[in-house]
Design goal:
Elements: H1 2-18, E1 39-41, E2 61-70, E3 75-80, E4 93-96, E5 101-107, E6 120-125, E7 133-141, E8 158-162
Antiparallel strand pairs: 1-2, 2-7, 3-6, 3-8, 4-5, 5-7
């Protein structure tokens, strides 16, 4: 029996030596992440109402704020559609009561230039994904117009782009 055990031990040793060694190779794995500049509007259906008293200078102006959140470091741009009533009184947009119109200007500051339909820098840079950016939208009616009494309206799409 000792001989049998000895033969098994010797056979096992030769089998171990005869097993080919496993070859090892290495490879480097690169991990990449691309963080996109994006913005998300936080304000649900913003609106602004101008309660205009034609005899009170300055009452033709009103402001609302639209809150957005953007990727950290993203620069915000804003564009506004042309609205649904066309131009009036030298203004690119107008509010209408169905028969009459009043021209108005949208801008990012009270005395600012007309907000175009193509994106312009809003002057805001995001500080983080949970940081709200409050962007003022100023509406100024054409003070030179002489409108009838009534309720005038328009709808404009604001587009926020992150760069």
């Amino acid at each position: 029996m000792n001989r049998t055990v000895s033969r098994l031990v010797v056979a096992a040793a030769f089998a171990a030596l005869a097993t080919p060694a496993l070859a090892q190779n290495t490879a480097n794995l690169s991990i990449n992440a691309n963080v996109r500049a994006t913005c998300q509007v936080q304000t649900a259906a913003p609106s602004v109402t101008v309660d205009w008293d034609v005899y009170t200078p300055g009452s033709e102006h009103a402001t609302t704020n639209v809150v957005v959140r953007c990727s950290k470091g993203a620069v915000v741009q804003v564009a506004a559609s042309a609205g649904g009533n066309g131009a009036a009184g030298g203004f690119a947009r107008s509010v209408s009561d169905g028969t009459s119109t009043i021209g108005y200007k949208l801008s990012l500051t009270a005395a600012g230039a007309e907000l175009p339909t193509t994106a312009v820098a809003a002057g805001f840079t995001s500080t983080g994904k949970n940081a709200n950016i409050s962007i003022p939208i100023h509406v100024t009616l054409d003070a030179a117009s002489d409108p009838n009494v009534g309720a005038y309206s328009d709808a404009v799409v604001l587009t926020y782009t992150a760069l």
